[in-house]
């Protein structure tokens, strides 16, 4: 799809066609959404679709998960006119942090951290990432927010797979993603 072309009718998820399949092998994610971010209307519609379920909800801050969640998270924060908090992989913040170990979608053990001075008790945080595959990364972010006394106002991602971890997140938190139900099985079976 041309990066300037906008379809005459824009159903939810039309911009998913902008994503590209993995051509580099098993060490990479199976699908790359970064081309979607290059399309002005695609990015706007993606963010609008992610935020639609939270219309009228109290959200004090948006947090994006390192690294691709920074793109959607910052766009969502700007749209909502809220602050943006980066939840980082360990070792990147030079301030006081709290850390949480986790296993990512590939099964690698990692550590995530967040600055301790950004979340006060009761602060309602919308967590945003590009993709939720196994749920390990998002669950670590949830743990960090809640450990600092924040409230997870919701979880948003382009896709939330129906993995065990993805289902757990959807059962316990208000969630939003962009994949229409008719396409969800294709995304779950990659």
TrEMBL record:
Belongs to the purine/pyrimidine phosphoribosyltransferase family. GO terms for molecular function: adenine phosphoribosyltransferase activity. Pfam families: Pribosyltran (PF00156). It comes from the Eukaryota. Pathway: Purine metabolism; AMP biosynthesis via salvage pathway; AMP from adenine: step 1/1. This is adenine phosphoribosyltransferase. GO terms for cellular component: cytoplasm. It comes from Rhabdornis inornatus. Gene3D superfamilies: 3.40.50.2020. Its EC number is 2.4.2.7. SUPFAM superfamilies: PRTase-like (SSF53271). Its main location: cytoplasm. One of its GO terms (biological process) is purine ribonucleoside salvage. It is found in: Cytoplasm. Residues 56-178 form the Phosphoribosyltransferase domain. Homodimer. CDD domains: PRTases_typeI. Keywords: Cytoplasm, Glycosyltransferase, Purine salvage, Transferase. It catalyses: AMP + diphosphate = 5-phospho-alpha-D-ribose 1-diphosphate + adenine.
């Amino acid at each position: 799809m041309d990066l300037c072309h906008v379809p005459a009718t824009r159903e939810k998820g039309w911009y998913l066609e902008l994503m590209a399949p993995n051509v580099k092998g098993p060490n990479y994610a199976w699908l790359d959404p970064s081309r979607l971010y290059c399309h002005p209307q695609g990015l706007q519609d993606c963010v609008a679709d992610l935020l639609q379920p939270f219309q009228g909800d109290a959200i004090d801050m948006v947090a994006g998960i390192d690294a691709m969640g920074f793109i959607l998270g910052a766009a969502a924060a700007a749209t909502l006119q809220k602050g943006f908090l980066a939840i980082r992989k360990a070792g990147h913040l030079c301030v006081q942090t709290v850390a949480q170990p986790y296993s990512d979608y590939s099964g690698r053990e990692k550590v995530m951290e967040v600055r301790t001075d950004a979340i006060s008790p009761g602060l309602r945080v919308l967590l945003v990432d590009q993709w939720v595959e196994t749920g390990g990364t998002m669950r670590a972010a949830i743990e960090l927010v809640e450990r600092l006394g924040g409230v997870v106002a919701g979880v948003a991602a382009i896709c939330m797979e129906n993995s065990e971890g993805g289902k757990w997140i959807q059962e316990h938190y208000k969630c939003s993603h962009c994949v229409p139900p008719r396409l969800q099985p294709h995304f779950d079976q990659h």
